[in-house]
Specification:
This protein is an alpha/beta fold and 365 residues long. The chain has two domains: 2-234, Type I PLP-dependent aspartate aminotransferase-like (Major domain) (Aspartate Aminotransferase, domain 2); 240-357, Alpha-Beta Complex (Aspartate Aminotransferase, domain 1). It is 39% helix and 13% strand. The protein contains twelve helices and ten strands. The strands form two sheets. Strands 1-7-6-5-4-2-3 form a seven-stranded mixed sheet, with helices on both faces. A three-stranded antiparallel sheet has the order 8-9-10. β4, α6 and β5 form a beta-alpha-beta unit. α2 (18-37) runs parallel beside α7 (223-238). The longest helix has 22 residues, at 240-261. It binds pyridoxal-5'-phosphate. Pyridoxal-5'-phosphate is lined by residues 50-52, 80, 82, 127, 131, 156, 158-159, 179, 182, 190, 307.
Amino acid sequence: MLPYFTGQFGNAASQIHSFGRNARDAVEAARETLGQAIHARPQDICFTSGATESVNLAIKGLFHAGGKVPQHFITVVTEHPAVLDSFRRIASEGAEVTYLPVDAQGILDPRLVAGHLRPHTKMVSVMAANNEIGVRQPLDEIGALCRKHNIFFMTDATQAFGKTALNVQSSNIHLLAASAHKIYGPKGVGILYCRRSRPPVPLVPIIDGGGHERGLRSGTLNVPGIVGFAKATELALAEMNTEQARLQELRDALFEMLQRGIPGLRLNGHPEKRLAGNLNVSIPGIVNESLILALAADVACSSGSACTTAAVDPSHVLKALGLGLAEVHGSVRFGLGRTTTRAEVQHAAQAIVKQVQNLRSQGAG
Ligand SMILES: *Cc1c(COP(=O)(O)O)cnc(C)c1O
């Protein structure tokens, strides 16, 4: 990224001089890398400021392209707030939106989607992997259903991108959102994959101006951010299989140590169909905020989602699994990543068990 902050100062939209062309070439190389990562054509990759913007553009853009005719959308109650709030917005403007439930392990049954289709259903939007409990949804099945009924299929793949294989062709995905900072890239850059053939997905832009990104998203491109996103993608894909296997082993070890040390501890989400780096558990007899505070100097963990600023709301995802309020308040999420070592996992497990015993003995939690 560094050369594009300093020496390579050209604007990717200025084509006449070589400075602009250098920046443009870097952006187009990045577009190629990101397209390949999801088996998409580079021209179908639109750069944005992050997944929140991508999701807003996809949902609002598709609805606004549909005009005044009735339009029905299907999504899931456990989606990220960027998706849920975008649907809430278009619902206030006249869209019909169905929010499907998940089972006790957080998985959507594709038969539910089939059962809720209407003649004017326009799009189904289901996240690839959940940000709180890590569960992975059956994209292939839902994509096949959408193909059969000629409905657009969108997936918020922000958690899955770079960690699991994604293929917009075989999964029949028309719209896909991802973000650089979830794979160790820079903050403030993302993509929206928007298929522009067989049939093209019509989107009305949210940001108008110079017509950048084929008219989908105007504004001077964040060249260093885009270059960084592509590099982060390359690194993530190169190590994906070995790294995910390593994380899964560490995550399972952490779970076993916690289970041994904390009677009553329970896993939230499907035991197998989930991301390797996620562990979300409910601990009876404690309040998560107390545990998180007690651990803060030593272990960074979180209650529910990091993405809502009003962190006091109990997790909508855990409630959707059917957990009672006490279980939701006793739930903690641990994330394991590239820098996590076995020694750290052992240390964290000991610290967590000790603090839970403390809190339980105080009876305060
Ligand atoms: C982080 C996240 C987002 C938002 O991404 P930003 O790039 O931070 O806007 C959207 N969806 C999911 C599933 C996420 O995990």
